[in-house]
Amino acid sequence: MTRKDRFVSNHFYHIYSRTVLNVPEFKKKENANKLVQAFLLANSTKSGQAFNYLRNDRSATLEKALEVIKEGRKLVDVLCYTIMPDHYHLLLRQLTEGGITEFIRKCNTSIAKYINIKNNRTGSLFESCFKSKYINSNEYLLHLSLYIHLNPLDFIDNKNWRYNKLRDWRFKKEKLLNYPWSSLKKFLNKDYKDPILSGIKMISNQFNNSREYELFLKEWSEGTLFQIGDLVID
Fold this sequence. Notes:
By secondary structure, the protein is α+β, with helices and mostly antiparallel strands. 44% of the residues lie in helices and 12% in strands. It folds into 2 domains: 12-134, Transposase IS200-like (Alpha-Beta Plaits), CATH 3.30.70; 138-228, no CATH class.
């Protein structure tokens, strides 16, 4: 994966990867769950060993594979994420030199192999290079987390939220919290366990509590804060 971007360690980036021809591979529950597993296993300098262990050992378990990756160093902090039918969003902080590129390469390779074997197909699953945007301010960081967390409404409801026209927040919130492949549940319930996340406090600590973050989300989607503008990556 050759890129012009140079990712700088300890800086923040919005990462986006879309399937070729917008094929909705992650509309299938088993594929989305496998991508979640890839997010977990790819975030380590020992992830290659973990993936090989799962592929080659018939007695392998995910729990043991997770123990393998703990022996390595994290490549990135994952602040928030969502998986959509034909793409995914990640908000990352790079921790090691080349960490973002390596993490995404491992994620995309792992899920592509799984889907290709299952469907008896060959070729690329994703567009040639993932997209990225540099997060150059704290305001951008906070609002991008909202954009990522509201993104599933495109699929489960409609796109009105993109134009600050979201209404019936209680109903929409329930839909969002029932969506399995998003980090929002952790933001609204501090006791919820999401092992993918390692950098959530960089956002959540800027709010007094989860209710305050929810209010921020609600006000933004209803148009009482500011328009999305440059937050949209696609």
